[in-house]
């Protein structure tokens, strides 16, 4: 009986110590500290979050050329071959979907036999055509693009 009473007293002392350590005020401070740590980690992740790197696509025309592929919703840097095209100070570049709906439109100039354009938001999955027009809207070239 004395042994059981000592064990019971030891359990009571342990509970008393734990209760003294875990007061409402201390639990509040612990929860507030945890919230600050979680908020700090979330802020750090949000600040360090970077946009995915852009995908560079070189579009060229040739007989039997395969359709180029690009990942969906990634920034695209387009480089279009303008070899053997009439030289204009400005070209009109248009991106259309498979139904012919215009997705993006730019005025671009050629340098070193290439026209460069950027689609910072990329394109949704689907089939697209990149069209290059003269300033008078005469279609000069069309390049196929499959976005996966």
Description:
The mean pLDDT is 88. By secondary structure, the chain is of the alpha+beta class. It contains 2 helices and 9 strands. The strands form 2 sheets. The chain has a 5-stranded mixed β-sheet, with no helix packed on it. Strands 1-3-7-6 form a 4-stranded mixed β-sheet, with no helix packed on it. A hairpin with a 2-residue loop joins strand 6 (110-111) and strand 7.
- In order across it, which strands form the biggest sheet? 2-9-8-4-5
Average pLDDT for all residues: 88
The quaternary structure here is single chain
List the total number of helices: 2
Low-confidence stretches: none
Question: What shape does the CA trace take?
Answer: rod-shaped
- Radius of gyration equals 32 Å
Kindly estimate the percentage of residues that lie in beta strands according to DSSP: 35-45%
Number of strands: 9
Brief summary:
The protein has 148 residues and is of the alpha+beta class. Helix content is 30%, strand content 36%. The protein is built from two helices and nine strands.
Summarize the helices and strands and which ones pair or pack.
Elements: H1 2-21, H2 24-48, E1 55-59, E2 68-70, E3 76-81, E4 91-97, E5 102-108, E6 110-111, E7 114-119, E8 126-133, E9 139-147
Parallel strand pairs: 1-3, 2-9
Antiparallel strand pairs: 3-7, 4-5, 4-8, 6-7, 8-9
């Amino acid at each position: 009986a004395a042994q059981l009473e000592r064990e019971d007293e030891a359990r009571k002392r342990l509970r008393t110590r734990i209760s003294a350590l875990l007061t409402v005020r201390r639990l509040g401070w612990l929860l507030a500290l945890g919230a600050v740590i979680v908020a700090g980690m979330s802020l750090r992740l949000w600040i360090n979050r970077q946009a995915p790197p852009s995908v560079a696509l070189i579009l060229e025309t040739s007989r039997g050329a395969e359709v180029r592929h690009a990942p969906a919703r990634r920034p695209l840097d387009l480089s279009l071959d303008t070899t053997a095209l009439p030289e204009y100070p400005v070209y009109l570049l248009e991106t259309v979907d498979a139904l012919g709906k215009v997705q993006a439109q730019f005025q671009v100039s050629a340098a070193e036999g290439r026209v460069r354009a950027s689609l910072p938001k990329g394109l949704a999955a689907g089939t697209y055509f990149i069209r290059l027009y003269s300033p008078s809207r005469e279609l000069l070239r069309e390049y196929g693009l499959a976005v996966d």
